[in-house]
Amino acid sequence: MNETPVSVEVNGRRYNWMSRPVVVVCVDGCAYEYLEEAAEAGVAPFLRTLLKPGTALKGDCVVPSFTNPNNLSIVTGVPPAVHGISGNYFFDRESGTEVLMNDPKYLVAPTVLATFAAQGASVAVVTAKDKLRRLLGKGLKGICFSSEKADEATLDENGIDNVLELVGKPVPSVYSADLSEFVFAAGVRLLETRKIDLMYLSTTDYVQHKHAPGTAGANAFYQMMDAYLKQLDALGAVIAITADHGMNAKHDEDGEPNVIYLQERFDDWLGEDAARVILPITDPYVVHHGALGSFATVYLPDGADVDALRTKLAAEDGIELALTGADGCARFELPPARMGDLIVISKQDVVLGTRRVKHDLSGLDVPLRSHGGLSEQTVPLVFSKPVAADVTGRARLRNFDVIDIALNHLQ
């Protein structure tokens, strides 16, 4: 019989083997204030016990503060410059086409999850949307399925079948809090029925796009989450909680979205379609944000004066940062091959679009809340056991330190 390894090394970081089940939770769109408000309101008693010095910390997420770059950073332990996933879309200059980056081939670094599984660990991944499931499950010999397509899970594809029977819930709507609840319910049932060494649970930010911290809708979500976290704790798991990004209001006093339509700006400056604006937030599920976020990258025509355009863009009201592609990639640790000539970030209450006619906002039934910029970078790092002093003394923590802390630095 092969002996269990003491540790594994992934992307230059070493991770100790699990001595008990470890559950890492990425709560999509979870600014730290959501946890504080729910705990203060008394609806999240388990979380309240964790929100104290020594177990609750704050860190920075990856910019762009979007779902895919951050989830993949969390499970690889490195920034997008290493793993390659910089958003949902990029522009392929060679083919002249916009490419949806949800194919696992675009992930160019191994995950901690797959590496542990290859060494014999029992690993399970449950994510809300299937777009992320394929990336998170790259190379993984274990359980990996989504709430969205739980009814389609098979042993060959997902390492598990009969998921609905296991969880005892129907397939939820993709636009609902139920999509995230299914993730937690599945996590509990997996831990109850199987030997699990390492589990990764990733939710959707449907609720956070609609409800600010402390509101009834937000608190109801965290009350639900709290009950499942308590069950995971009772089952003996070490719990580590972080987020892929925060969330902020992006509208004016009348509730209308604050949008800078960048493609219209560049059409005026350079001629129609001379430049191409890419919004990496764009994915197949845009009802709750209209494909409007606070980060964009711009591809310019040959011969364009990049620095002059950067300066002009930086002077626009509502723009927080305009950088050349090279400077932006260096600052935010992004892969240059998947970024344009300019990187643009808007201010906290502003989002970036292409052209007004390209954004269908008819699905917004509440004033716009979104993410993508520097203002959504602070996220929680909360653990069910005290964190070692060498962590609390670090100058900077990142959300992609969460697995390292959970496996190597808890007391």
What does this structure look like?
There is one protein chain. α1 packs across α11. The model has no long low-confidence stretch (mean pLDDT 95). The chain has 16 helices and 19 strands. Helix content is 31%, strand content 19%. The protein has a seven-stranded mixed β-sheet with strand order 4-19-10-3-9-7-8, with helices on both faces. Strands 13-14-16-15 form a four-stranded antiparallel β-sheet. By secondary structure, it is an alpha/beta fold.
Short description:
This protein has 16 helices and 19 strands. The chain has 411 residues and is an alpha/beta fold.
Key phrases:
411 residues; 4-stranded antiparallel beta sheet; 7-stranded mixed beta sheet; alpha/beta; single chain
Determine the strand fraction and express it as a percent band.
15-25%
In spatial order, strands of the major sheet run: 4-19-10-3-9-7-8
Low-confidence stretches: none
The best one-word shape is globular
Nearest-integer average pLDDT? 95
* Rg measurement, Å: 21 Å
Structural class comes to alpha/beta
Helix content: 25-40%
Q: Termini distance? A: 31 Å
* Biggest sheet record: 7 strands, mixed
Count of distinct strands: 19
Count of runs of 4 or more consecutive helical residues: 16
Write the layout of secondary structure elements.
Layout: E1 7-10, E2 13-16, E3 22-26, H1 32-40, H2 45-50, E4 56-60, H3 67-76, H4 80-83, E5 89-92, E6 97-100, H5 112-118, E7 123-127, H6 130-136, E8 143-146, H7 155-158, H8 163-167, H9 178-193, E9 198-202, H10 206-210, H11 216-234, E10 238-242, E11 248-249, E12 259-261, H12 262-270, E13 276-278, E14 295-299, H13 306-314, E15 319-324, H14 325-332, E16 342-346, E17 351-353, E18 369-370, E19 378-383, H15 389-392, H16 402-408
Parallel strand pairs: 3-9, 3-10, 7-8, 7-9, 12-17
Antiparallel strand pairs: 1-2, 4-19, 5-6, 10-19, 11-18, 13-14, 14-16, 15-16
Helix pairs in contact: 1-11, 9-11
